[in-house]
UniProtKB/TrEMBL annotation:
<dbReference type="InterPro" id="IPR036390">
    <property type="entry name" value="WH_DNA-bd_sf"/>
</dbReference>
<dbReference type="InterPro" id="IPR011991">
    <property type="entry name" value="ArsR-like_HTH"/>
</dbReference>
<keyword id="KW-0238">DNA-binding</keyword>
<dbReference type="InterPro" id="IPR001845">
    <property type="entry name" value="HTH_ArsR_DNA-bd_dom"/>
</dbReference>
<dbReference type="Pfam" id="PF01022">
    <property type="entry name" value="HTH_5"/>
</dbReference>
<keyword id="KW-0804">Transcription</keyword>
<dbReference type="InterPro" id="IPR051081">
    <property type="entry name" value="HTH_MetalResp_TranReg"/>
</dbReference>
<keyword id="KW-0805">Transcription regulation</keyword>
<feature type="domain" description="HTH arsR-type">
    <location>
        <begin position="1"/>
        <end position="92"/>
    </location>
</feature>
<protein>
    <submittedName>
        <fullName>DNA-binding transcriptional regulator, ArsR family</fullName>
    </submittedName>
</protein>
<dbReference type="GO" id="GO:0003700">
    <property type="term" value="F:DNA-binding transcription factor activity"/>
</dbReference>
<feature type="region of interest" description="Disordered">
    <location>
        <begin position="99"/>
        <end position="130"/>
    </location>
</feature>
<feature type="compositionally biased region" description="Low complexity">
    <location>
        <begin position="99"/>
        <end position="116"/>
    </location>
</feature>
<dbReference type="InterPro" id="IPR036388">
    <property type="entry name" value="WH-like_DNA-bd_sf"/>
</dbReference>
<dbReference type="GO" id="GO:0003677">
    <property type="term" value="F:DNA binding"/>
</dbReference>
Length: 130
């Protein structure tokens, strides 16, 4: 099994994530329409990236005449989200609660904050003052 044949492997590449974003925005696109959005790779490379995404089940292909149209498949994304939630769900929930609690607290006044240099404002910072 290659790294791209699973949704996780397919999502590991920046270009493939960009292709998924385009399909998310536009619904259904041809290889040519997708390739026009990239300056660093050509149509053949886009086709190869689409094959990885299709093999991973993240996109589906529809043939109409000589064109192939690609669009997103939702089911594998639910699998990825479910897996990540099972790993990090409790951690993310705790982080969200901590962020909400700290946002609810009043920030300390600037005069109450400790001096980051470890000295008070009347003490010279760089040694003896003349």
């Amino acid at each position: 099994m290659s790294c791209g044949s699973s949704p996780f492997g397919a999502l590991a590449d920046d270009t493939r994530r960009a292709v998924l974003s385009l399909l998310s925005e536009h619904g259904e696109l041809t290889v040519t329409q997708i390739a026009e959005q990239f300056t660093h790779i050509g149509r053949t490379a886009v086709s190869m990236q689409l094959r990885v995404l299709r093999d991973a089940g993240l996109v589906k292909e529809r043939r109409a005449g000589k064109y192939r149209y690609y669009s997103l498949r939702v089911e594998p994304v639910h699998e990825v989200i479910s897996f990540l939630n099972s790993l990090y769900g409790a951690s993310l929930d705790g982080l969200a609660r901590a962020a909400e609690a700290s946002a609810d607290q009043e920030p300390a006044a600037a005069s109450d904050a400790p001096d980051p240099t470890g000295t008070d404002k009347d003490t010279p910072r760089w040694g003896i003052s003349y």
